[in-house]
Amino acid sequence: MGNSKVLKFTKKQIKRLIKEGNVDIFNTYDEVRHMPDSGKYIPKKYDSWKEFWKARSTSSIPFPENGAYICDCCERFKNNFVGGHVITTDNKKAYIYPICKECNDKAKKDNDYSQTSFTVLREWLVPFSPEDAIDTAENQKE
Questions:
Q1: For residues 74 and 103, what is the distance between their CA atoms, to the nearest angstrom?
Q2: Whole-structure pTM value
């Protein structure tokens, strides 16, 4: 094994290092928040946002299924992931990202979109735009 050393960081340390932008290894992560009012969107060409993510992702890491994975939002082992709408904290771009159903539902129910941020794997972010969706709020107005 030689002189190799495994470095362990707390989530708080990682967030600080990302914010400072001085550690290249952490450039594979982004800070995100739940996207406001995302519940009004349904995908145009897919049965779910999870299916949208699977079809559009270029990640070599598959969608978390068939077993327990750690949800980046709540940091707990979960086995029921959905494609959640998130926005990056720095440039406010919108993405679909695998998060557990409980976190996704809680953000919608509590209207907790802008307060809590969490660190995600950049490779798992799949770009989202309103053109990819049907706005159910707009359809109700007609």
A1: 7
A2: 0.76
Given a contact cutoff of 8 angstroms between Cβ atoms, the answer to whether 32 and 121 are in contact is: no
Exposed / middle / buried, residue 68 (Cβ in 10 Å: 0-12, 13-18, 19+): exposed
Dihedral through CA 65, CA 102, CA 88, CA 113, nearest 10? Answer: 170
> How big is the chain by its Cα radius of gyration, in Å?
16
The residue type found at 123 is E
Distance separating alpha carbons of residues 17 and 26, to the nearest angstrom: 7
Q: What is the pLDDT of residues 51-82, one digit of tens each?
A: 999 999 988 778 888 778 889 999 999 989 99
Of 39, 117, 134, 30, nearest to 85 (Cα)?
Answer: 39
Question: Could you tell me which of 69, 73, 62, 67 has the C-alpha nearest to residue 108?
Answer: 73
